[in-house]
Amino acid sequence: MAKKSMIERDKKRQRLVEQFATKRAALKAVASDQSVSVEERFKATLQLAELPRNSSATRLRNRCQLTGRPRAYYRKLKISRIMLRELGSNGEIPGLVKSSW
Question: What interactions and quaternary structure are annotated (predicted)?
Answer without folding.
Answer: Part of the 30S ribosomal subunit. Contacts proteins S3 and S10.
